[in-house]
Amino acid sequence: MATNRTFTMLKPDAVEKGHIGAILEKISASGFRIVALKLTQMTKADAQAFYAIHSERPFYGELVEYMTRGPIVAAVLEKDNAVEDFRTLIGATNPADAAEGTIRKLYAASIGENAVHGSDSDENAAIEGAFHFSGRDMF
Ligand code: UDP
Ligand code: MG
């Protein structure tokens, strides 16, 4: 995957609250092109693997429960400087610290249920995109 791509998930809380359309609109209006997109549900094993880096953290069990409780929207996005610009668009992990107008400020309930995922590096964007999509489902 080229380094102008990032990976996102609209997490179960955002889907449950009916925010898929509004969040995708904000992502598109911010200059990101949708490369791949699907509604899917992670299994417990999926979520444990996806968040393996956090396996020693106290919130890991809750995070896996949350991320598997309902469907998510997974997407690969493209834009110059995609990883950094998308992290700016979503805002801080804790919505209480997120800047005005960011997706987490607008739609996240708490540091745990924070509406969206955004990759933190080009390397992880490629790994996370490949976790959810085969090459033939990226356009
Ligand atoms: N998380 C949590 N409690 C914390 C920190 C993180 O429940 O104290 C959850 C939250 O859903 C977050 C995810 O774990 O989005 C991954 O954490 P990370 O530090 O990678 O934050 P992110 O990269 O998503 O901003
Ligand atoms: Mg992270």
UniProtKB/TrEMBL annotation:
Keywords: ATP-binding, Cytoplasm, Kinase, Magnesium, Metal-binding, Nucleotide metabolism, Nucleotide-binding, Phosphoprotein, Transferase. Residues 3-137 form the Nucleoside diphosphate kinase-like domain. Belongs to the NDK family. It catalyses: a ribonucleoside 5'-diphosphate + ATP = a ribonucleoside 5'-triphosphate + ADP; a 2'-deoxyribonucleoside 5'-diphosphate + ATP = a 2'-deoxyribonucleoside 5'-triphosphate + ADP. Its main location: cytoplasm. PANTHER family: NUCLEOSIDE DIPHOSPHATE KINASE, NUCLEOSIDE DIPHOSPHATE KINASE DDB_G0292928-RELATED. The active site is at 117 (pros-phosphohistidine intermediate). One of its GO terms (molecular function) is ATP binding. Major role in the synthesis of nucleoside triphosphates other than ATP. The ATP gamma phosphate is transferred to the NDP beta phosphate via a ping-pong mechanism, using a phosphorylated active-site intermediate. This is Nucleoside diphosphate kinase. GO terms for cellular component: cytoplasm. Homotetramer. Its cofactor is Mg(2+). Its EC number is 2.7.4.6. It is an enzyme of class 2 (transferase). InterPro entries: NDK-like_dom, NDK-like_dom_sf, Nucleoside_diP_kinase. ATP binds at residues 11, 59, 87, 93, 104, 114. GO terms for biological process: CTP biosynthetic process; GTP biosynthetic process; UTP biosynthetic process. The lineage of its organism: Bacteria, Pseudomonadati, Bacteroidota, Flavobacteriia, Flavobacteriales.
